[in-house]
Structure formats: C-alpha cells, structure tokens
Amino acid sequence: MDTTAGSPADTVQVRGVYFDELEVGATFDAPSVTLTDGMQATHGAIVGNRLRISRDAVLSEAVTGARSPIASPALVWDTAIGQSTVVTQRVRANLFYRGLRFHRLPAIGDTLSTMTRVEGLKQNSAKPGRALTGLAALHITTTDQHDRIVLDFWRCAMLPLSPGSEPTGHADDLSALGSAIADGELTEAVQGWDLTAFRDRVPGPHFGQLDRAWRIEGADVVTSAPELARLTGNLATVHHDAVAAGGDRLVYGGHTIGLAFHQVCRAIPALVTVLAWDGCDHVGPVHEGDTLRSTITVQRGWELPEGGGIAQLRVLVDATRGDGSVAPVLDWSLYALLA
Fold first, then answer.
1. Which CATH class is domain 14-166+179-338?
2. Could you tell me the residue ranges of all domains in the chain?
3. Which of 213, 234, 200 is nearest to 84 (CA)?
4. Tell me: the pLDDT tens digits for 297-328?
C-alpha cells in the first residue's frame, strides 16, 4: 500500500497508487485468506449459491474423493479479485477480465495467496474538463498453501493520474491482453473427479439434455454491496465511498458476476462447476438497489472421454434501475462442466 506524507508533518496519508506511479513489471501482494464455512455462507447470502457440489459435503466427497467440501468457484474468484485490488484502490472502472482458468478447485480450509503484476499501461486520450486516466493491464496469479496455482487471469482497470501530473506517454497495446484457453486445458482442475457419481446422485438435465437458451423470470436485487467488498478484501474506494464514486457507490463487479452465476445455476441446476472464463466485460455500471436478470445461451459443447461434457455459455445481464429504465451491464462467457 502506497503512503504519502500529509499535513500535519507527523500524519501519513494512506492511499492507493495513481496510474502514473505504476511501472510495467511491478508486483503487488496482499494478505492471504483462508476459506471458511462462515465466509462461504456469508458470500452465498449476498450473491446466492445453488451450486450443489459446494453446498453438499457428501456429494463433494463422492465426486472429488476429498473429505473437505469444494469451495464455491464464485467465492474463490471474488477472493482473488479482491486481493488484486491492492493495486486498484483508486479504480474508476474495471473494464474486463480475460483468460480466467482454474488450475485446481480449492476446498474449504485452503488458504489463497495472490500476486498481481502490471503487464501493460496505456494512457487514455485527454478529454476537456476531465481528469487524466489510464488503463492498467494486470496479470493475477492465485496459489494455495502448497504453492499450487489455483487461478490465473488478467484484468484491465482504469485509474486516474495524480493531480497535476504530466502525461505519461504510456501507449502499450492491450488488445491481446490475456492468453487464449485451449479446450484441452480446461479439465486440469477436475482430474480424477467421478462425474458418474454426480450424475447418479443429481437429477438432470445433464450434458446432452440441455436446452439452448434460458431467460430468468425472477430477477435478483443487488444488496449488501459494501459488505461483499469487505468480505472479499476489495479495497477499491468506489465500492465504499460515495464521494469517491462521484455521488453514488459503484457495485463491485464480482457482485454482478456472482448474481449472474446464481441465475446460471437456477437455469442449469445439474451444473457441476465452472472451469474457466473466456472473457467477461462490464458493459455498464451497477448500483445497489438495481435488479439483475440474465439470459443464458449455449454457444457450443463437447463430450469428454471419461463421460459428461463441457458447455460454453454466454451470459448477458440487464439491470433494471430504480426509475424503471433497463440497461445492459455484463457480457460473460464461461466454460461449465456437466456430468
């Protein structure tokens, strides 16, 4: 965490870094987090959790062979993203995520550590009457207590330049941010899982029995936004401080994604878990009190040699505002494992 001497002379101002203070190659760490039952229960109370394998310890052991139940993947990615915000406390917006893939799926009791590396910087064009901003491309790697990689992904955050600073000249090409996920890499996190045990215990529809698209009828209201940010260690000021956000706090992007995933599990109740995200774009802001509704489409699917299959899903989320207006807020592509 960056600190700058303030006034009076013996006071230190605790603050996040500005865009012009970042350098490509700089790395940041954050406090490690041990996943607990209480943390998962609180997370599920805020964004929902209908993923069977993270709710049913008996099912989890039958499928994975491990006695400790699997943590919800939404809790895991929210924790990793929260740990990465040590770099982005001053964030104006998080534009997108790329190439998020689970190398393993942690269980309750595992401890997650995250390292965030600056991989690219691009200053935005100056606009009259607006403070200067820039885009920071961040590579995020999360490991467990045995130094095994859990998650690996990229995000792109917009940050302000410090007051009175000169243009930085940063002009990196961020269009190729992240690495493509090969189909053959997707099942690394679930090697040894018994999908037949899942299929035998959970009513379908399973792989090969899915519809092509779903529209969620009952929407979900966004509540407890700062509580979720605190739970997951998210330091971005715009999620906590209305003044910093321009008068109305922004909801943490993981909140929108978590509610979308809750709705995916309502549409596909026999979904085993999420293996990866191809991409995730925040196409509009979300505020507490908005009501979110998802449309889910199967883009493609393929069988696995050991049974079951993978479905690539596209999830489009709309927000209904307090004034009744409706706006798109999320475009999310993910890979789902089915038995």
1. alpha beta
2. 14-166+179-338
3. 234
4. 999 999 999 899 999 999 999 999 999 999 99
